[in-house]
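Design a sequence for this backbone.
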């Protein structure tokens, strides 16, 4: 069981590290590190200030002891002048005790002064390191931002970025839908043209209907053209020879000469049957031998 728990813990840590690494921004990490260094530098400076304060306090105590020692020395001198040796001895004894305290304070002062100097040098070195880190931090951030921008530009040009990938997919979907609609429209047109589908509006016609209508239109044109030709053939120029061969009113027609062919009377206003073109009869000879 312990091995299973260890594997689960290892997998969890690995996935957590990967997720954190993906979420981590080096620029933010550098800014946070710089902020921590500034806080450390501020603590060192406060330590230097505290040591300097303690040193100053020791100096003030030492100055007070020196003042008291000088006062006791003056008192012992006056006591000897008035013949009070016992008072002079007591004053000198007290001064000796103050001198011992003063020696201790001087030792403490020297120690505090040494600590202050060490902290001051450490603060200066840390300040230099913080300044150098700040400069390098800004350089790294600028380089990272430039590399990130260049990467995005390259991804955009190559089409592998998420934004361009979404745009490319949208374009592909639009092209697929357009091709599908074009294919559907073409298929419906073919089905309407072949007659497999009926147009409920009646506007679309299949190929057979269109061919029949075209044939009927051509037949009507031919009929009208034949009528116009017949009308032109029965004009004044063509009617004059016919009038010469007609008998006078009230007189019987003269019989034809032997061996001469008599043309049948001309027919006018001939109408062709509907849907059929008019076929003009062949021209008949007006004279000569009938063969």
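Sequence:
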């Amino acid at each position: 069981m312990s091995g299973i728990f260890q594997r689960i813990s290892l997998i969890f840590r690995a996935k957590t590290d990967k997720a954190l690494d993906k979420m981590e921004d080096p620029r933010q990490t550098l800014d946070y590190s710089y902020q921590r260094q500034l806080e450390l530098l501020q603590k060192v400076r406060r330590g230097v200030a505290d040591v300097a304060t303690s040193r100053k306090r020791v100096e003030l105590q030492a100055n007070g002891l020196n003042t008291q020692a000088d006062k006791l020395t003056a008192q012992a001198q006056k006591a000897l002048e008035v013949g009070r040796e016992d008072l002079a001895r007591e004053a000198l004894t007290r001064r000796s005790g103050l001198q011992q305290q003063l020696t201790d304070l001087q030792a403490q002062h020297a120690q505090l002064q040494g600590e202050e100097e060490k902290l001051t040098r450490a603060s200066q070195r840390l300040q230099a390191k913080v300044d150098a880190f700040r400069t390098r931090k800004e350089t790294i951030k600028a380089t990272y931002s430039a590399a990130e921008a260049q990467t995005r530009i390259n991804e955009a040009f190559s089409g592998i970025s998420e934004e361009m990938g979404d745009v490319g997919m949208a374009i592909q979907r639009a092209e697929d839908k357009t091709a599908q609609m074009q294919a559907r429209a073409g298929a419906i047109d073919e089905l309407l043209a072949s007659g497999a589908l009926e147009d409920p509006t009646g506007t679309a016609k299949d190929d057979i209907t269109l061919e029949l209508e075209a044939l009927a239109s051509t037949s009507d044109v031919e009929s009208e053209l034949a009528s116009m030709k017949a009308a032109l053939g029965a004009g004044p120029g063509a009617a004059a020879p016919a009038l010469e061969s007609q008998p006078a009113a009230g007189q019987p027609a003269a019989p034809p000469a032997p061996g001469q062919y008599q043309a049948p009377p001309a027919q006018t206003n001939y109408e062709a049957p509907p849907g059929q073109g008019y076929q003009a009869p062949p021209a008949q000879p007006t004279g000569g031998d009938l063969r």
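The chain has two domains: 2-161, 177-230.
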